[in-house]
Write a sequence for this structure.
């Protein structure tokens, strides 16, 4: 571990992930705010994608090319932090495997893997953050996205931080550890099956009667927001970082822009 | 029976399954029952996780030395007076079994539940040889009456409800009072017990599978809850075991380790009701038990998995936990997978056994949620192995052209950060412009798989990297 | 080439071995000879009254019923009483186990017959080789003393187990079988029985008495 020198704040490279970069920059801004509030120096190296779609589609060559690009861009920092369990998991768990037969790159991939974190787990487990300075009124339920939960053991960290948000109360839905049916390209390739899975998820969300649905991965959030919206639900869908940063003034995922939020 | 896999039509099968309301009701039983029971029983045993490691290690050690353990086991079977028949293929296994049955002049052949028997389509071969195979596991009996394949490896009739079973019993058990009451499941069970009791007593040959073969003693092991496997093997003159080569374990102590995780992972019991260790035929002085004991050992593609990235799959002990915890299995059920083995374990095993050209959908039809791996008692990295199959499909150009070209376009940009930033910024601004009124798209070209079922949230507009650059510019 | 040779050849080719490697052979021989114990759960390592109490608790959890009696002489009365309570006829089938033979059946009104079952018996008695406290499991071995058919064909199975034969874990019982029959040798059948027969095959509902006994009644003898 590249232990940060105690005399200077940790230099953290923010890996926004391609979905956040393209679809919802506010999550990246919220992530930067949370990291800066916790005393980090945040930088955003030029980035595209970690290569997971290629990796999971069986295209190893592209996955390796993108991973190499990512390693080169990010290896110079103390930590790499992403507002996504899925993309952080790709770097932490799968980069070492991608290069295990290439000793030189394997060493660099291992080093990068070791200092790459999902946002809430970085704040809680590495920086020891226990509370955030945010105020958001309402009830929220949290969906445990699969990669964060099972690859990175992200479970308690987001809840711990959410409990410190002023005015926010947490309620758990049934089957909160069950997949939402996103699965990257799966959602399009096997849309009908994906729909059956996300329908059950949406029913569980509705049954918990929250004002807000939160999660740590934008892919899952877009899937669930899309389903809730199609079902006519009024539950707001947001990334956990936006709530922790108190940045809930923007419209929730899938809601019209320009329209002020109801609350 | 699934003689011909319908796995190539997985999508069509899944479509039918999703429309089938009765099936969807039945699948909700899987979603609720198995998962909670497993979790409760695992929580009750502090050593459970360590036992999973132990089970994995035992299987790994055995697979690495499979040739030697097979030799040891074979010698022990011979010492105990049993016979071993080696079968390279399904056809050789069917032939060996039919030959033993014919030689015995068998008319009725009872059967305990065996997935290998399904794999080699044994019942059809027994029937073709003029004998009557009778499945005796309640679930297997029901699906045999319906001429269906099992939809789950430990709960073969999990896709059915009691009303369907009642109508099958009325259709087939015509010798019974047509006005009898069968409205309660227990009445169905009692009727099956009576009908099958006669078959057990009349059988000439009994065929069971094996959960394990023990090298130390030449023993085969079956694990059941009903007791049908035992009645199958102790009443007829001849007991035939059909098992595949990877069922070997070294010792009685080793099998005890694995048994501690098997039932807990499968049904959430601490131990199944009947765990039976069989070693050879009837001994001098015995008043019951079979006079002949045969084991047909099947390879059928497994030896080719050794030494490859799929070797870990041979650790599988067929508990069914992976499918019990799989969101895709919960959605479509077992039959959609189109061959004997459904769920995550089937998604890895089926391409090995029937070819990735036929079973290619199965390893793709996964969200990689990882719940299967998290509950597998022998810690098989199922998502990783599904990914290996996707890699083989990609290399062999079996991946659908649309996916391939979509991936190609995306990769072209992703590999060129400067171009990516420029194009994505423009693209997202445009997309946001079109989506700004509703905040979502209700249909999108090329993404019907998404927008047929749910809305696609509109982007906020611009990219994070662009905004960050602007913020930094403003600050400095 | 025979199927056997071809399968061994294929396994060895895939593993990249010849089968002649001395270290592999030694590792395999040693594992079989030493049969190392793996992880034995803490609850499988009890002794004394705690062991028997766990056995009883676990057996009940499997939906078996259990009576404790102080010695062998008390068994027939306890069984007669069980049959009365359960509204069963006073008829029993059992094997030739000398421990059963010692018991004073003639002091009860029970009608006792001997031998295997042909399917016509409602109640049978077998003597267990051992009990395992870890899961409330009964362990029976085949032979004329306790015919295997008596474990499966009757509707009601009564199993007698001596308290001194109750062990914490399965491994402890394997050791006793090795001591009795010799290392590497097994009785034709070893039955582990953990509760009465059951099935969940119809709508996942638990139903007792699928093919084997719908009731397992244990008589635990001694302290």
């Amino acid at each position: 571990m590249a232990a940060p020198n105690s005399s200077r704040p940790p230099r953290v490279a923010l890996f926004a992930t391609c979905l956040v970069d393209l679809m919802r920059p506010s999550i990246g801004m919220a992530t930067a705010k949370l990291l800066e509030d916790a005393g980090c120096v945040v930088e955003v190296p030029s980035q595209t994608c970690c290569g997971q779609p290629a990796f999971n589609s069986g295209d190893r060559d592209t996955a390796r090319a993108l991973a190499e690009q990512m390693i080169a861009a990010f290896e110079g920092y103390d930590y790499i932090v992403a507002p996504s369990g899925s993309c952080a998991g790709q770097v932490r768990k799968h980069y070492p495997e991608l290069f295990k037969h290439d000793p030189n790159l394997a060493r660099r991939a291992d080093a990068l893997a070791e200092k790459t974190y999902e946002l809430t787990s970085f704040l809680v487990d590495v920086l020891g953050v226990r509370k955030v300075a945010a105020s958001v009124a309402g009830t929220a339920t949290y969906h445990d996205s699969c990669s964060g939960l099972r690859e990175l053991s992200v479970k308690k960290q987001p809840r711990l931080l959410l409990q410190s948000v002023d005015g926010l109360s947490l309620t758990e839905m049934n089957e909160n550890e069950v997949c939402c049916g996103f699965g990257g390209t799966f959602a399009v390739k096997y849309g009908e099956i994906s729909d059956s899975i996300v329908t059950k998820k949406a029913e569980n969300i509705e049954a918990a009667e929250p004002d807000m649905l939160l999660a740590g991965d934008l892919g899952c959030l877009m899937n669930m927001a899309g389903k809730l919206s199609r079902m006519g639900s009024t539950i707001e869908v947001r990334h956990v970082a936006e709530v922790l940063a108190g940045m809930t003034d923007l419209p929730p995922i899938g809601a019209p822009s320009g329209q002020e939020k109801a609350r | 029976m699934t003689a011909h896999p319908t796995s190539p039509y997985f999508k069509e099968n899944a479509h039918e399954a999703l429309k089938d309301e009765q099936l969807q009701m039945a699948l909700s039983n899987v979603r609720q029952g198995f998962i909670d029971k497993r979790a409760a029983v695992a929580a009750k045993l502090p050593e459970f996780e360590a036992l999973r490691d132990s089970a994995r290690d035992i299987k790994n050690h055995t697979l690495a030395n499979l040739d030697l353990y097979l030799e040891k086991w074979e010698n022990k079977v011979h010492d105990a007076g049993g016979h071993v028949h080696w079968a390279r293929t399904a056809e050789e296994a069917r032939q060996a079994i039919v030959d033993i049955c014919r030689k015995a002049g068998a008319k009725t052949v009872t059967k305990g539940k065996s997935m290998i028997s399904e794999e080699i389509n044994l019942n059809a071969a027994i029937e073709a040889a003029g004998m009557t195979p009778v499945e005796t596991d309640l679930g297997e009996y029901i699906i045999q009456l319906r001429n269906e394949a099992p939809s789950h490896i430990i709960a073969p009739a999990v896709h059915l409800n009691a009303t369907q079973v009642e109508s099958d019993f009325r259709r087939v058990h015509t010798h019974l009072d047509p006005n009898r009451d069968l409205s309660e499941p227990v009445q169905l069970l009692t009727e099956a017990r009576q009908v099958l009791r006669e078959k057990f007593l009349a059988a000439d040959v009994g065929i069971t599978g094996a959960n394990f073969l023990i090298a130390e003693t030449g023993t085969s092991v079956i694990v059941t809850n009903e007791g049908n496997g035992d009645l199958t093997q102790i009443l007829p003159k001849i007991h035939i075991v059909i098992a595949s080569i990877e069922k070997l374990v070294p010792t009685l102590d080793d099998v005890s380790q694995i048994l501690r995780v098997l039932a807990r992972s499968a049904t959430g019991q601490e131990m199944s009701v009947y765990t039976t260790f069989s070693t050879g035929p009837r001994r001098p002085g015995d008043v019951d038990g079979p006079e002949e004991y045969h084991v047909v050992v099947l390879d059928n593609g497994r030896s080719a998995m050794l030494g490859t990235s799929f070797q870990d799959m041979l650790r599988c002990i067929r508990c069914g936990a992976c499918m019990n915890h799989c969101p895709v299995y919960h959605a479509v059920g077992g039959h959609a997978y189109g061959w004997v083995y459904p769920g995550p374990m089937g998604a890895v095993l089926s391409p090995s056994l029937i070819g990735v050209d036929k079973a290619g959908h199965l390893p793709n039809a996964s969200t990689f949620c990882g719940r299967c791996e998290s509950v597998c008692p022998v810690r098989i990295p199922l998502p990783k192995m599904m990914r290996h199959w996707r890699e083989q499909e990609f290399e062999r150009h079996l991946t659908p052209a649309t996916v391939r070209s979509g991936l190609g376009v995306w990769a072209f940009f992703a590999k060129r950060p400067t171009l990516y930033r420029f194009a994505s910024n423009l693209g997202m601004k445009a997309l946001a412009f079109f989506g700004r009124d509703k905040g979502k798209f209700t249909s999108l070209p090329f993404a019907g798989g998404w927008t047929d079922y749910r809305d696609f949230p509109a982007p906020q507009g611009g990219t994070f990297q662009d905004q960050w650059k602007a913020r930094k510019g403003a600050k400095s | 080439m025979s199927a056997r040779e071809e399968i061994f050849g294929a396994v060895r080719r895939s593993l990249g071995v010849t089968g002649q490697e001395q270290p592999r052979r030694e590792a395999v021989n040693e594992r079989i000879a030493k049969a190392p114990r793996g992880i034995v759960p803490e609850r499988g390592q009890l002794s004394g009254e705690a062991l028997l109490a766990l056995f009883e608790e676990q057996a009940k959890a499997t939906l078996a019923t259990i009576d404790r009696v102080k010695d062998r002489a008390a068994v027939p009365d306890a069984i007669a009483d069980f049959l009365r309570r359960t509204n069963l006829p006073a008829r029993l089938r059992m094997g030739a186990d000398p421990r059963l033979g010692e018991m004073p059946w003639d002091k009860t009104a029970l009608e006792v017959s001997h031998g295997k079952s042909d399917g016509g018996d409602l109640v049978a008695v077998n003597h267990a080789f051992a009990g395992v406290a870890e899961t409330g499991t009964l362990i029976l071995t085949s032979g004329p003393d306790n015919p295997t058919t008596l474990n499966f064909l009757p509707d009601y199975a009564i199993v007698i187990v001596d308290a001194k034969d109750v062990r914490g874990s399965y491994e402890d019982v394997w050791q006793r079988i090795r001591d009795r029959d010799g290392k590497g040798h097994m009785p034709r059948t070893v039955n582990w029985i953990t509760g009465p027969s059951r099935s969940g095959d119809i709508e996942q509902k638990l139903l007792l008495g699928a093919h084997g006994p719908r009731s397992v009644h244990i008589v635990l003898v001694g302290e």
Remarks:
- Residues 46-221 of chain C form a domain with the Rossmann fold fold (CATH 3.40.50.10420).
